[in-house]
């Protein structure tokens, strides 16, 4: 994958995150990863106020010269002044990141736009965009319909959504047509489904046993393509032309360099028919929010 297609995901900089490696990274490793980003041409950092210490870690490690995108948490239940709340959240994020401005500010819970306080929240976002010199406002969604519903309240510039071989909900239909017609910048997360698509069978948590047949089909596709699971995931990503960047989290500098040095996915194309068996899989499998791994 080209460096320009990657936005570095940072949930594991401030939290124990992911099904494969549930650990928070030490500061020294974060510094090495950010150094590799600069050296290779990865220019975008994706973080969130809800990612524990992620923003402070990024600030300490030094994210200067990189485009930072962060996400606001959900509105507090008893918020009285939404504009003041948004202002304080953004100001603190900039202090934590040690940045003067943001490339993007997203709503982590875009459903807030659809409630009675939605219009006021949209106005507050626009005010903060102007005050803090934020290039793009956006939403981080989980369902395609959210893209259409939220647009009526906030004409956003950037949308982040899940997309991978197992989760193809956003690859067709009205949501994609909307993104294209409005020239919205699209960032996709979960290309490896939190590492699940890269795991050998023996390491996969027992929660996923009901879908053994799906994983067997996945392994067959990988073997038939004569590529690695990582390369097949990247090939799928490369074929989603409406997506501008992929949010990819890594656990080490070497892992980032491995992704960047993987075979150029544009050099081999997997027929669309090969992805078809993985369409319309149950949310209990494709949505990490529904997993029960304990």
DSSP helix fraction: 25-40%
What's the domain count? Answer: 1
What is the CA-based Rg, rounded?
A: 19 Å
Number of DSSP strands?
Answer: 8
| Structural class computed from helices and strand pairing | alpha/beta
Task: Please give the alpha-carbon distance between the first and last residues.
Answer: 33 Å
Percent in strands: 5-15%
How would you summarize what this structure contains?
This protein is of the alpha/beta class. It has helices at 11-14, 27-40, 54-61, 82-97, 118-131, 144-151, 174-181, 212-225, 229-238, 253-261, 272-275, 283-286; strands at 6-9, 44-46, 67-72, 104-107, 136-140, 158-162, 185-189, 245-249.
Explain what the structure shows:
An 8-stranded parallel beta barrel has the order 1-2-3-4-5-6-7-8. It has one domain: NADP-dependent oxidoreductase domain (TIM Barrel). Helices cover 38% and strands 13% of the residues. The chain has helices spanning 11-14, 27-40, 54-61, 82-97, 118-131, 144-151, 174-181, 212-225, 229-238, 253-261, 272-275, 283-286; strands at residues 6-9, 44-46, 67-72, 104-107, 136-140, 158-162, 185-189, 245-249. The two termini are 33 Å apart. The chain is of the alpha/beta class. Helix 3 (54-61) runs parallel beside helix 4 and helix 6 crosses helix 7. The chain contains 12 helices and 8 strands.
